[in-house]
Amino acid sequence: MNKQKHHPIDFQDARFKVANREALIGVGLVVVNFIWWYGFAYGLGSKPVEEYRYVFGLPAWFFYSCVLGLFVMIALVTIIVNSCLREVPFDEEEEEKRGGQR
Amino acid sequence: MNSPVLISLTIFLTLIFVIGFWSAKQLHQKQNTFLQEYFLGSRDLGGFILAMTMVATYGSASSFLGGPGAAYTQGLGWVLLAMTQVATGYFVLLILGKKFAIMARKYHAITLIDFLKNRYNSKTVVILSAISIVVFLFSAMTAQWVGGARLIESLTGLSYTAALFLFASAVLVYVVIGGFRAVVVTDTIQGVVMVVGTVIILVGTIIAGGGVTAIITDLAAENPNLITPFGHDGGLTPAYVSSFWILVGVGVVALPQVAVRAMAYRNAKAMHRALIVGTIVVGVIMLGMHLIGVFARPILPGIEVADQVMPLITLEVLPPWIAGMVLAAPLAAIMSTVDSLLLLVSSTVVRDVYLNYVKPDASNKRVRNVSFGVTAVLGILVFALALRPPELLIWLNLFAFGGLEAAFIWPLIFGLYWQRGNKWGAVASMIAGVLSYIIIHQYWPNPFGLHSVVLPVAFSFFAYILVTLSTSEREKHLGA
User: Fold this and answer.
1) Which of A13, A19, B209, B390 has its CA 20 to 30 A from that of B173?
2) Element (H or E) spanning A58, and its range?
């Protein structure tokens, strides 16, 4: 087995800047998702049932929070992946390893 | 006996075998990297497969039997709760993301424990992690087997023991022979079956109920609470439902069976693709499956065993042949969860305990034999337990998720993103998280209206930071 010594990770690695930024994007997405989900569900859903409005037959709170919310998140993730995420190589030795094995 | 159902079930199981054997052939061609290939599929997953395997592993019996069953009882409030899981589709990959992939490659890590071992360089961390994984996942796995067997039992009319035997032999042969690549390939097929199946059953249910408006009107007439966010008796408070964002949303990052997939993908492109596919798939399945549960209520009132809602509504609204095909979906979900858990527990035993502490210089051939042996023995043990499931196991399964999250979330996240984080912090965090979780779960369920996982996650957070800060001061003094 590869019994190599404990080698500390170089936290200054330029690729980690990209990774850190993308982790923060993940946190941001969850916050947006949560606010949308919570706001519509309890903002519209706390009224008495008699005052509910309906969209496509579903109670409005449910439609906006769960159904529309899902589409909004899918759209947001797609936009962010296509515009903000950067491709980085994962493995310095990737090339030689490939050459050796295949 | 329902023969169309039985036939599609058989077709499905055969398909699984074929794929298992095909993967095994791939395995023999790459002998020199046996461990990497058997447990990680040589870190070569593409984006679509990565997304599917994550969703299929995570979306287990709970989302196919328990989840819709609870939605049947609770109404739309439970669908709201289930939608907290959409976050897993993008959050896990963005948080662990590229950093985890890079560090895991540098460490040659093939399990979560490998990663922690190299990051913290501590025996205590490894042993605590191995204990948490074996105890929590072993019990989670047994309960899944019980679920799988019950499903086969209700579909085919076989006895429970016969159903369990059928289920177990399929899973075992398949995992023992195929390894990780076999598991992720079928996860992909199963993921597709799940998505298509969800949509078909949902449409069938809406038609059978006379349209969405009619169904909602029926629900409101029966009990207006069913169409509020608060559950059938008003018991789903915003605080309780919101805490599921931690249990089944962001906390999923720390589940070892999910984290291991975040080190198995080929390149950044695969990860980007998986982010989009994963969000769509997990969203459609969660929304669809749980809505089916709610909509089933006016069509089939008075179902008492919640786990039966899904099979019964499918048989009710679809022609038998299609029902048989579609019901392969929940079975598929349970199977792929079981497959991955089995593989994970055996990799913990082989990699993290056997190779680290028992026989570090074992030859490649020996490692291979031990891996097969341990996987088979574990499978047989689980089978024996599932024959007569003890009460304790069911209890353990319920809290396995929370326990793993309390144990691993901060050692993993701080290990990745906080350079100063050290082994003392990690050990303190794991102990504080797991102990407080067990105590709160037992003696103080739902403190302040929150789910019992919330406080332990907070405790382990503070334990990590405080202990790291105080010990890194000492290290500095010693060094000077």
Assistant:
1) B390
2) strand A58-59
Q: Does A29 touch chain B (CB under 8 A)?
A: yes
DSSP-assigned letter for residue B251: G
CA distances from B207 to B224, B309, B315 (A): 22, 17, 14
Residue of B26, B30, B36, B90 to mutate when probing chain A, most A C-beta within 10 A: B90
CA angle B311, B312, B314 (to 5 degrees): 65
Q: Which CATH class is domain B3-399?
A: mainly alpha
Residue A12 lies in a domain: no
Residue with tokens 């990774």: A19
Chain A stretch 52-71, residues whose beta carbon is closer than 8 A to a beta carbon of chain B:
52, 54, 56-59, 61-62, 65-67, 69-70
Q: What is the pLDDT of residues A6-21, one digit of tens each?
A: 555 666 777 888 888 8
User: For residues A44 and A51, what is the distance between their CA atoms, to the nearest angstrom?
Assistant: 10
Phi then psi dihedrals of residue A59, to 5 deg: -55, 140
Q: What is the Cα B106 distance to its own chain's centre?
A: 27
Rounded Cα distance between B393 and B136, Å, is 10
What does DSSP assign to residue A55? E
ipTM of the complex: 0.83
Beta bridge mates, A55: A58
The domain containing residue A56 runs over which residues?
38-85
Q: A4-59 pLDDT, tens per residue?
A: 445 556 667 778 888 888 899 999 999 999 999 999 999 998 888 888 899 998 99
Euclidean distance between CA atoms A26 and B10, whole angstroms: 42
B409-460 confidence digits (pLDDT tens): 999 999 888 888 888 899 999 999 999 988 888 788 777 888 888 899 999 9
Residue B51: per-residue pLDDT? 75
Angle B96-B58-B378 (CA atoms, 0-180°, nearest 5)? 105
For residues B160 and B153, the answer to whether their CB atoms sit within 8 Å is yes
| Whether the Cβ atoms of residue B322 and residue B3 lie closer than 8 Å to each other | no
Half-sphere exposure (CA, 13 Å, Cβ side) for B479? Answer: 6
Strands A54-55 and A58-59: antiparallel
Cα angle for residues A10, A30, B254 (degrees, 5° grid): 55
DSSP B171-183: HHHHHHHHHHHHH
- Name the strand (E) or helix (H) holding A54: strand A54-55
Inside any domain, residue A90: no
B475: which residues sit within 8 A by CB, 6+ positions away?
B422
How many separate domains does chain A show? Answer: 1
Domain assignments of chain B as residue spans, ordered by start:
3-399
Q: How many residues does chain B have?
A: 480
Q: What residues of A are in contact with residue B116 (Cβ under 8 Å)?
A: none
Using CA coordinates, name the residue in chain A closest to B211: A57
